[in-house]
Backbone:
């Protein structure tokens, strides 16, 4: 049979085929990442940096989750899916599973960012994907099942530093898959333990903790993983937490179909629709979010483009699954988009979401007043807070998560005020000498105690803060036709300010899934010349900016 790639015809906006359209056209890129040579020692490896460019000295275990993308492409029957039941594709999927087995540690763990890391997140993502692939292909290879069991045992017995709820939810899902393949009761028990741990990290406001707070992007991934788990188990214990999780997430769905952003604790724009499709028959919020994504987020190209070689698998397999489990809820086509006007203030998360008939504005108080304003045609304004560059090259920022910020939300005055301390921005890069020292650590201390090394990295690049004595204050006043932003800074330390600005998308912590492309990246950097001049004169300054909210044309 000839192998052809017929073009997938672009479906109309809102059609379920948008999920499949995006997924299928991502498959050739993912195939490019795979070593397809059956005589190669790395046959089945998805880490192109390792097997092809040879710029990496170990294979990234996270990449083996790409097996699920190919398995779903192989299993999805659709007239415009050229990969359906392709024999060569099935061989490659099996090869990827065997490479994962061969390249793993003896205990079943795998590495992600450095050798001997034994990364729990990578182990969970890849184990779920590989076990799911086996189920789709009907594989019951004893050697693979024993490999999955080893990895499942390791996953159940090892925790990681930091609270990442999405990892716990996914690890529970992975263990459920291993239980389904092996029928060994310890994996069911391990699933329940990790499920309960993830649920214990849900705040009463509905959000699941991601490091230092709520991240709406990762919220959708946790929703998707737990909804998949409920689909597999029928577990009623998950229903109420999922309802509250979706109710929280719905406030951060923008009217143009985009979602999340730099106001989250981890700066992500993740949007996983599969869990929402699974919940749509019982949750109007889930239905609204999924429908807006199909009508505008995908067709309008307003979605988050986190499409690099490390991250894109998460989205692609979720799109395949969302198409498969699309919810044909009566009246869905007539659903009004976006949601009704409302204001929601979440004091524990420090997030304020205000929505009227035309706009959605989200402000993050514990991130210094990071602000994003979106309309039905796209982003209107985005501002990640005041940034100052000093004469010695130091950069001070207001957007690092800080629960010590003084926060006041006044519903009567429609005014949010945030006061706190500026922090020095860390921007360390690798050099040949640093890489040599780091490799020496990974091969010695890190090999014996990888969690210690991971904690050190988290402290340096994610949760640690170089707080200064310089202070900031931001007041955001909301009116029907405008939003006013007043920034005040008091600088201490005697350094002269070279630049003052507020950029639409600047971040200062390391998060693999942050800094994707979204339309808001094309908004201008706001230069704070008046504030800079005042700080030069008296070390104190103030500047006001007004965002006019003019009515956009109807869409």
Residues:
């Amino acid at each position: 049979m000839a192998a052809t790639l017929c073009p997938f015809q672009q479906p109309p906006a809102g059609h379920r085929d948008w999920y499949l359209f995006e997924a299928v056209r991502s498959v050739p890129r993912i195939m490019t990442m795979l070593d397809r040579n059956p005589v190669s020692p790395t046959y089945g490896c998805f880490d192109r940096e390792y097997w092809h460019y040879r710029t990496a000295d170990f294979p990234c275990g996270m990449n083996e989750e790409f097996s699920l993308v190919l398995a779903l492409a192989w299993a999805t029957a659709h007239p415009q899916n050229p990969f359906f039941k392709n024999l060569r594709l099935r061989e490659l999927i099996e090869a990827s599973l065997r490479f994962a087995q061969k390249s793993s540690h003896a205990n079943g763990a795998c590495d992600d960012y450095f050798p001997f890391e034994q990364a729990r997140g990578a182990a969970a993502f890849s184990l779920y994907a590989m076990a799911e692939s086996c189920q789709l292909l009907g594989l019951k290879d004893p050697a693979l099942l024993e490999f999955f069991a080893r990895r499942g045992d390791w996953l159940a017995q090892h925790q990681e530093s930091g609270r990442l709820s999405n990892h716990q939810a996914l690890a529970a899902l992975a263990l459920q898959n291993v239980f389904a393949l092996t029928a060994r009761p310890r994996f069911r028990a391990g699933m329940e333990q990790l499920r309960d741990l993830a649920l214990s990290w849900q705040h009463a406001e509905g959000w699941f903790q991601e490091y230092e707070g709520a991240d709406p992007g990762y919220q959708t991934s946790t929703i998707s993983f737990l909804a998949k788990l409920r689909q597999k188990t029928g577990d009623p214990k998950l229903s109420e937490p999922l309802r509250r999780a979706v109710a929280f997430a719905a406030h951060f769905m923008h009217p143009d179909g985009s979602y999340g952003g730099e106001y989250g604790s981890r700066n992500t724009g993740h949007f996983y629709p599969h869990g929402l499709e699974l919940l749509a028959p019982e949750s109007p919020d889930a239905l609204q979010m999924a429908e807006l994504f199909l009508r505008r987020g995908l067709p309008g190209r307003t979605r988050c483009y986190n499409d690099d070689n490390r991250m894109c698998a998460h989205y692609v397999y979720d799109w395949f699954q969302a198409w498969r489990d699309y919810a044909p809820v009566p009246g869905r086509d007539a659903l009004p988009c976006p949601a009704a006007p409302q204001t929601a203030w979440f004091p524990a998360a420090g997030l304020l979401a205000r929505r009227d008939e035309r706009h959605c504005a989200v402000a993050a108080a514990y991130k210094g007043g990071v602000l994003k304003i979106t309309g039905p045609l796209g982003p209107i304004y985005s501002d990640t807070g005041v940034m100052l560059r000093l004469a010695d090259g130091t950069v001070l920022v207001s957007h690092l998560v800080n629960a010590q910020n003084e926060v006041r939300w006044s519903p009567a005055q429609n005014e949010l005020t945030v006061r706190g301390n500026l922090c020095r921005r860390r921007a360390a890069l690798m050099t040949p000498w640093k890489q040599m020292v780091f490799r020496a650590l990974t091969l010695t201390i890190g090999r014996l105690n990888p969690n210690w090394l991971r904690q050190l990295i988290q402290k340096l690049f994610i949760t640690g803060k170089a707080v200064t004595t310089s202070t900031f204050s931001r007041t955001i006043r909301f009116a029907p036709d405008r939003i006013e932003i007043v920034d005040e800074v008091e600088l201490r330390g005697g350094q002269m300010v070279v630049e003052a600005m507020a950029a639409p998308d600047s971040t200062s912590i390391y998060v693999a899934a942050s800094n994707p492309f979204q339309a808001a990246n094309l908004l201008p950097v706001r230069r704070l010349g008046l504030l800079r001049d005042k700080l030069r004169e008296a070390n104190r300054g103030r500047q006001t900016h007004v965002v006019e909210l003019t009515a956009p044309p109807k869409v």
Notes: Residues 121 and 167 are 6 Å apart (CA to CA).
